[in-house]
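During the reporting period the student researcher (J.K.) took over the structure-prediction task from the postdoctoral fellow and processed the backlog of single-chain submissions. One of the processed entries is reproduced below for the supervisory committee.
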Amino acid sequence: MDIAFVIEKFILVTIIFAITLVIAMYSTYAERKVAAFLQDRLGPDRAGPFGILQPLADGLKMFMKEEIIPTNASKWLFMVGPGLAMLTACIGTAVIPWGSPIVVNDRIVPLQVTDINVGILYIFGVVSLGVYGVMIGGWASNNKYSLLSAIRAASQNISYEIAMGLSIIALLLVTNTMSLKEIVDQQHGWHWNIFYQPLGFLIFIICAFAETNRAPFDLPECETELIGGYHTEYSSMKLGFYLFAEYINMFVSSAVMATLYFGGYNYPGMDWVLMHTGPVVGPLIGTAVFFVKIFAFIFFFMWVRWTIPRFRYDQLMHLGWKGLIPLAIANIIITGIVIAIIEKF
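J.K. obtained the following structure tokens:
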């Protein structure tokens, strides 16, 4: 095996992991600032200039808190739950293309950990595994509120994964590939999939809110009913892992949506920029554009949380089964008919 290849991948994985953790950490700060802005408050402003060190203070507080394992909890599963939630949240970044390849000393270095031809299936597999961290934590706590939260999370994820998968089928009819890199390359310039699949994107982003347990779909964490939900019994950094995993999932979901529907690292005039900036700076500009799109989606997640009230659980199930799934099936049929007409004429 090429040792340079191994070093490249190790460096890339390390950088992506570090960026993911930093974004998740400062998403907590951004969420509080966005909430403060929408509610005409200041938000964190004591720890450092403009409260910029607040995430570090929160992390230190988590590490310093007493770690408590309830007497009647299943000890090993109680410890596995947060770790599994964190693991499944992080591994979703492996197939996301973060930029076009850069050239270093005549060696082409792709800004993607791995480009597998079933990248979308990989993402869905990771999303499906993510609920196990919540379920294990809720069940192992031996707390009725945590258990109810785990049941809610499982049924919610199963319900909305169906509509999300159906929305992706329509996208696959347009792209004819499941490789995320190829999907991005097809969206050169302004040929973004959002213009070809607006209904599919709407379904996908609604399901993304449900899959990440974000408001108005945060029924597994509903404080007014479940006093915190599946992490009621957790403290210290185990609780921190669950909270971190939610923000990492939000980051990965934003990256996937930007990749599938908004061109990823593509932007108008990209060829001219690459021609005049070189084989390293040019691709990094595309990466910066990609992160701007991701941050826009993260802001949208936060904006919705502090704007729309929480659903009742029957409304949640009604929307998933009787609203989004029929819409997604209709979108597949319409997409297939349009493609057949275009190919015929």
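The committee noted the following: The two ends are 49 Å apart (CA to CA).
J.K. will present the remaining backlog at the next meeting.
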